[in-house]
Design a protein that fits this description.
By secondary structure, this protein is α+β, with helices and mostly antiparallel strands. It is built from 13 helices and eight strands.
């Protein structure tokens, strides 16, 4: 832990670096000073994610072997003062213009086209083949960064052929951040990468790649070498550092606009599906997220195309009263298509053609409890087929999309995931989800 609490800093503050057994109040005082003064080796301030990582590292250290402290420096009241200093430090850094934290960006459409046309991927050399297999598995299976990549073996995948086509999937349920295992973890996603046909088919490329691997090494990702060295790959697995920098190296080779990280492929997979019209619940079955809100966080920003059009609209308003119309929306897919075989349907009507929702007074009250012959089966959003409504982009979203319900007999939820919070009395739950991706609405009677 010398990297977290440097001995020189502890000496200057008359503190012992052996903090693991400090009482809660003394540890809180130490953390309060540390959060306000910690700097990098070059004197620069840590980013928001860096400070959060330091705090999490300290928490994991004192709560794991051999100390097993029964305290929580993230939430316990004894550490409120220290955490307030940390929050204040983050606010000061942002006011000073030192907060440059950026989330994992999805690969832009221009960079994706440049990547596929750059010749970085191919089947003719060991490096190109390995890069294409790694890229395909990360992208089509929506894998998280470098999680579980080093543990993959040559026999980790199985090839299946059925009426849907040929696909490849893992033979086992992989342990991940969202699915670590246990009795409560029974909803593991079954990720599949389907054959696309053609010379660059990811399934065929994986078959060729496995045949080229060295027989004396079980690792899926082995060190590439030239055929003159006695084969395509050496009997040594790739190092963790090499695997962590795969997408960064590929970005430089392809001449992309920025150096993307491995996790950017996961963000690209999710945003591509969401912007194509797939509902978040369907996307979670591929991404493995347990919460729909986590999927929605990947699409909290608009595309560069929409931002450029908004800028053009603002510019045109300075010269004339004419305001350009929003760009045409792309066609959306059906609500529950197969993720790798979308069925395109016609685009939804314009926002101006959508009739406004009826007023709250026009909604009929639910039937009285005495008029119900038999108690209905409780219904949730999980077993209700909610029809997918018109796609709502940020530029034509307005509050008229929301349905306001009368207080008392009606409850209005802005998230379908909250539909489970039902009470014992008979009522109507109106589910209205409005985002920059989709708009769904359904009413249902529950007991």
């Amino acid at each position: 832990m010398s990297s977290i609490f440097p001995p020189e800093w502890c000496v200057r503050r008359d503190l012992s670096p052996d903090f693991e057994e400090f009482p809660a109040d003394k540890l809180s005082e130490m953390l309060r000073k540390f959060y306000g003064e910690v700097r990098k080796v070059d004197g620069q301030t840590y980013s928001r994610n860096g400070l959060a990582g330091l705090r999490s590292a300290i928490h994991r250290h004192i709560t794991s072997a051999p100390w097993h402290r029964k305290i929580n420096i993230l939430q316990d009241a004894e550490f409120k003062a220290a955490n307030n200093v940390l929050i204040g430090t983050l606010k000061l850094n942002k006011r000073a213009g030192l907060d440059n934290t950026k989330s994992f960006a999805d690969i832009s459409q221009e960079d994706m086209q440049r990547l596929m046309a750059s010749g970085v991927f191919g089947l003719e050399t060991a490096q190109k083949l390995q890069d294409w297999v790694w890229f395909s598995l990360q992208f089509y299976l929506c894998r998280r960064g470098c999680e579980g990549v080093r543990e993959l073996k040559k026999d980790s995948f199985q090839f299946v052929h059925n009426r849907e086509g040929e696909y490849v999937q893992l033979k086992y349920n992989e342990a991940s951040k969202n699915h670590p295992g246990g009795f409560k973890n029974t909803n593991d996603p079954q990720k599949k990468m389907f054959s696309t046909g053609g010379p660059m088919c990811p399934v065929n490329a994986l078959k060729v790649y496995i045949q080229k691997l060295h027989p004396d090494c079980d690792a899926l990702y082995q060190r590439p070498q030239t055929p003159n060295d006695g084969g395509w790959y050496a009997p040594f697995p790739l190092g963790i550092k090499k695997l962590q920098g795969m997408m960064s190296r590929i970005s430089l080779l392809a001449g992309l606009s920025k150096r993307y990280t491995n996790h950017c492929l996961r963000a690209t997979c999710i945003t591509t599906l969401m912007r194509s019209g797939y509902d978040p619940i369907t996307v979670t079955r591929l991404s493995g997220h347990r919460n729909v809100a986590s999927v929605m966080s990947y699409c909290r920003d608009t595309t560069d195309q929409v931002k450029r059009h908004m800028g053009s609209t603002l510019t045109s308003s300075l010269s004339s009263q004419h305001v350009t119309s929003p760009p045409p929306r792309p066609s959306v897919t059906s609500r529950h298509p197969h993720p790798f075989a979308p069925h395109t349907i016609s685009a939804p009507p314009a926002a101006s053609a959508i009739s406004a929702p009826p007023a709250a007074s026009a909604i009929s009250a639910p039937p009285a409890a005495s008029a119900i012959s038999a108690p209905p089966v409780p219904t949730t959003s999980a077993n209700l087929d909610i029809p997918c409504g018109p796609r709502v982009e940020p530029y034509d979203m307005n509050m008229n999309c929301l349905r306001y319900c009368q207080k008392g007999n009606f409850d209005c939820f802005l998230s379908p995931s909250r539909s489970s919070n039902v009470r014992s009395m008979s009522r109507v739950i109106c589910i209205q989800a409005v985002s920059n991706l989709f708009c769904v609405h359904a009413c249902m009677h529950v007991l």
